[in-house]
Amino acid sequence: MAVTALLGLPRTRGRLPLVAAQGVDALGTGLFLPFAVVYFHAAKGLPLTAVGAALSLAALLALPAGLCAGPLVDRFGPRRVVVAANLLRVLTFTGYVFAGSPPVLVVLAALTFWGEGLFWPASGALVAQVADDGQRARWYAMERTLRNVGIGLGGLAGSVLVVVGGYAAIVVLNAVSFLVAAVLVATWKGRAGEAPPRTTAPRGGYRAVLADRGFRRVLVTVFVFALCDLALTVLLSAYVLDALRLPAWQPGVLFALNTVLVVLAQTVVAGRVERFRRARTLQVAAVVWAGAFLLYAAVPLVTALPAFAVLTLATAVFTVAELLQAPTSSALTVALAPAHLRGRYLGLEEVLWGAARVLAPVTFTALLAGGPQLPWLVLAGCCIMAVAVLAGLKAVPDAAPARENVDA
Known about the structure:
Layout: H1 2-7, H2 16-32, H3 36-43, H4 48-61, H5 65-76, H6 78-96, H7 102-130, H8 136-165, H9 167-187, H10 206-210, H11 213-243, H12 249-273, H13 278-298, H14 307-336, H15 342-370, H16 374-391
Helix pairs in contact: 2-8, 2-9, 4-7, 5-6, 5-7, 5-15, 6-7, 6-9, 7-15, 8-9, 8-12, 8-14, 11-12, 11-14, 11-15, 11-16, 12-14, 13-14, 13-16, 14-15
């Protein structure tokens, strides 16, 4: 128990199947994620431009998934939606084995993205139900750590499988991973003594969610923090390689540094900050992120130090902001949400993340074309705005202890 507390891990007794499901899901995703574009180009012979266009169109078609996830979670329970989302992705990844044309790719990829859009709000609601009160941030931190570990190990295993068994092997194994995760969640019985499932839910909808002034403030910060998070994957490589003209190995090393720090420190940080107000923690995260962006912007101006040293420092500071924000933001949304509207709260959060994923590439590249420092300065300004928005948010206590069935 002392080791668990030291590492910031939540109490998992009786919930290990859920932890295993998260790990299997992440491992399977890691198998395919690094090869998503290459698979359809190399294995299916589709032009890279056609693959890119198809995946972008599919992402647009899947934007409503978060909105649809909310009512489904609130009506049928998060566990059922998690299982359904995983089974949907079993079907789509099986279909990828036979997909050979852009229209088919658009349909299958859109359904895959719909599965992801349903999965994340449902998974967040499921964690909120099974986590002990006061430990939700730890659960979200552990989930994020497992995902980083699984994706990293999956990426390494995928590289081996591509050589040994070809691209089809990683697609099939990813489908199998989603099936195993679905079975683990579906067969988990929860803790003894929990209340029976609800058959009806109190009335309410997105109008009630949007009437929550505090949550409207949180939604602004969700979008800002999503853009901040995406800056590492969408903007950094282009900045390092195209704007700074630095060696091609540097972005990979910076990404690896970020991943290692998240794996080693995410649960520890979550355990240390859980006693502080969530809004205050998010304000600190926004300030730290602003500092990281200013460091990135300063790289061309710093002549006393090697550019890579400044980039490394900026990435480390960036990661500290991530460690503070990621579990805290999810825990804050859940704390604001009434139990019968939790799915809709998390669904709106997913919609804003989806919008950020669509807007980030075009926005960042346009800003980068206007000047190498411009996107970083804009992001820093957005972070300061988030600090001001959060300043008006009142303290949000954890929900009163309650026994909830995982299908409630």
